[in-house]
């Protein structure tokens, strides 16, 4: 069990949500090797739990369980699957305070924001419980009078889900929700840094009546061995991965050996453009939301902020003032708005990127270095005049650093926004209707926020193009990622 002496856990109402073993075939199961790894609270670097350190053998057991459970789950009436998913959604909501605490403790996201993530995650389970009922196929007018043509939707089979640490709850439910709704069974490998939210979701899924083997969870600190099984075992028919582009490319290659269906939600390099006709205060609010949520550690974080020269001075001044008001602190402390970065490597990366930008001529307006609290905290930072040659214009900053540069021309700024291999999200602020359509159509991304810095919702398709991946999560499109379309030609009529 997780370190029972941890004072964090004394705040839980239901301590049985804390699980430390793999979930395989409906049972909490130690790694076959007996190995474990520690989970650390990024807010204070204290060990808060010890979980199974699985390897390929555990992954094979999980795949076996998912494969065996597949036919019964797939043939369950959609109404029955929906009922179980609705119960799961309700229990996530009912336990959101505890789940938020677990998430905040393992990830460092301020508690209020952590609870919001849990509720956002629950919304996917609720949404896909409903979509399960609407897995409609087609009938197609036949070119032959003696034939009828139908298309039915069927679950793909075993779906492997690999998720990152930055949204330890929602990245799981937005994959597991549609997979289970479609009739797939699942093997989930959560991130090494944040396994506890995944295991707590597993506990609630069991309580909601999900049959053994339908959702299996394998935790590890050595992802390559588990990943090898999930990407090469022929019984796994689908991989849905959220994480870095580098790992996504590698997993996609491995999946080619057994021609698995693949969905990839990868890295981003979002442009945030403020045109001269924008409402400056609304744009500042948008930047605060798009940049500083989760301490800047989101894939759709505003990585490059382009501000028209007519508004540049006003906007930078107002933004710097707002950033200066952000409260940095322990994720579980009252009033914290910015938590720590996830680990020491992240702190080094953000520090390196800021130093590099300054060396290239950027100007520092506020912040700029590690926070005086010590640990893995970085000061909320605003840099202006960041040249395109700086590393932070090409790499995801993944930290609380707003990087501004000025522009003067629409065409030029759209070209700059598109000058990246990534294509996840972009934002822009303008009150010119013609420009809004024009620019939205020209941006090479999967998602555009016009006068909107918060894009995520379960009702809309989330996903990227170019090297940000392919596939969509949420909305009516999300379930299709886990379905096959089978064409049936019925002759002799
Ligand atoms: P990451 O290093 O690619 O890790 C993502 C997941 O892949 C983790 O579970 C990781 O396990 C696992 N993994 C690593 N190596 C593996 C291997 N050889 N085989 C199988 N699995 C392996 O990314 P991250 O740092 O956790 O997450 C941040 C990245 O995710 C950013 O690039 C961000 O933009 C992206 N992201 C994208 C979206 C989106 O929707 N597009 C959403 C959120 C995040 P370990 O934890 O053990 O390393």
Q: Please report the number of helical segments.
A: 14
CATH class value of the largest domain = Alpha Beta
- Count up the domains: 2
Radius of gyration, Cα only, in angstroms? 23 Å
Tell me the β content. 15-25%
Mean pLDDT: 97
Low-pLDDT parts are: 1-5
Which class do the helix and strand fractions yield? alpha/beta
The neighbouring-strand order within the major sheet is 14-15-16-13-12-18-19
Q: How would you describe this structure to a colleague?
A:
The protein is of the alpha/beta class and 493 residues long. The protein has 2 domains: 9-266 and 469-487, 3-Layer(aba) Sandwich (Aldehyde Dehydrogenase, Chain A, domain 1); 270-458, Aldehyde Dehydrogenase, Chain A, domain 2. Helix content is 37%, strand content 21%. The chain contains 14 helices and 22 strands. The strands form 6 sheets. It has a 7-stranded mixed β-sheet with strand order 14-15-16-13-12-18-19, with helices on both faces. Strands 9-8-7-10-11-21 form a 6-stranded mixed β-sheet, sandwiched between helices. Strands 5-6-22 form a 3-stranded antiparallel β-sheet, with no helix packed on it. The protein starts with 21 loop residues before the first strand and ends with a strand. The model is unreliable at 1-5 (pLDDT under 50). NADP nicotinamide-adenine-dinucleotide phosphate is lined by residues 162-167, 171, 189, 191-193, 223-224, 227, 242-244, 247, 251, 265-268, 299, 396, 424, 464, 468.
């Amino acid at each position: 069990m997780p370190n029972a002496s941890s004072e964090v856990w004394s705040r839980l109402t239901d301590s049985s949500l804390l699980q430390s073993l793999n979930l395989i075939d409906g049972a909490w199961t130690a790694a076959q090797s007996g190995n474990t790894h520690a989970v650390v609270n990024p807010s204070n670097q204290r060990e808060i739990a010890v979980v199974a350190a699985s390897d390929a053998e555990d992954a094979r057991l999980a795949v076996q369980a998912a494969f065996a459970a597949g036919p019964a789950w797939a043939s369950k009436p959609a109404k029955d699957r929906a009922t179980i998913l609705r119960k799961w959604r309700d229990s996530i909501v009912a336990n959101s305070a505890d789940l938020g605490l677990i998430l905040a403790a393992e990830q460092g996201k301020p508690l209020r924001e952590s609870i919001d993530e849990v509720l956002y995650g629950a919304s996917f389970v609720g949404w896909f419980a409903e979509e399960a009922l609407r897995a409609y196929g087609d009938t197609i007018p036949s070119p032959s009078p003696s034939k009828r043509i139908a298309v039915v939707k069927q679950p793909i089979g075993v779906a492997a889900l690999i998720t990152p640490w930055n949204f330890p709850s929602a990245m799981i439910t937005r994959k597991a929700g549609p997979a289970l709704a479609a009739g797939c069974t699942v093997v989930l490998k959560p991130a090494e840094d944040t396994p506890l939210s995944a295991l707590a979701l597993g506990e609630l899924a069991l309580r909601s009546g999900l049959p053994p083997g339908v959702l299996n969870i394998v935790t590890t600190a050595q992802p390559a061995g588990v990943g090898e099984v999930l990407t090469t075992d022929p019984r796994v028919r689908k991989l849905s991965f959220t994480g870095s582009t580098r790992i996504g490319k590698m997993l996609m290659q491995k999946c080619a050996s057994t021609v698995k269906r693949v969905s990839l939600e990868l890295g981003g390099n979002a442009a945030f453009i403020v045109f001269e006709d924008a409402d400056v205060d609304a744009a500042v609010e948008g930047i605060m939301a798009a940049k500083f949520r989760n301490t800047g550690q989101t894939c759709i974080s505003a990585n490059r902020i382009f501000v028209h020269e007519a508004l540049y001075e006003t906007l930078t001044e107002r933004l710097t003032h707002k950033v200066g008001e952000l409260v940095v602190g322990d994720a579980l402390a009252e009033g914290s708005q910015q938590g720590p970065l996830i680990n020491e490597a992240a702190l080094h990366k953000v520090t390196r990127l800021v130093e590099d930008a300054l060396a290239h001529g950027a100007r520092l307006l506020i912040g700029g270095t590690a926070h005086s609290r010590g640990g893995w905290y970085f000061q909320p930072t605003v840099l202006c005049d960041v040249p395109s040659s700086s590393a932070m214009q090409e790499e995801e900053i993944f930290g609380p650093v707003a990087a501004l540069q000025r522009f003067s021309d629409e065409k030029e700024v759209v070209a700059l926004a598109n000058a990246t291999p990534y294509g996840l999200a972009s934002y822009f602020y303008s009150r010119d209707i013609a420009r809004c359509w024009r620019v939205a159509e020209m941006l090479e991304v999967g998602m555009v926020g016009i006068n909107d810095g918060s894009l995520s919702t379960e009702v809309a398709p989330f996903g990227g193009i170019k090297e940000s991946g392919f596939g969509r999560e949420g909305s009516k499109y999300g379930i299709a990622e886990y379905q096959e379309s089978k064409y049936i030609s019925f002759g002799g009529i």
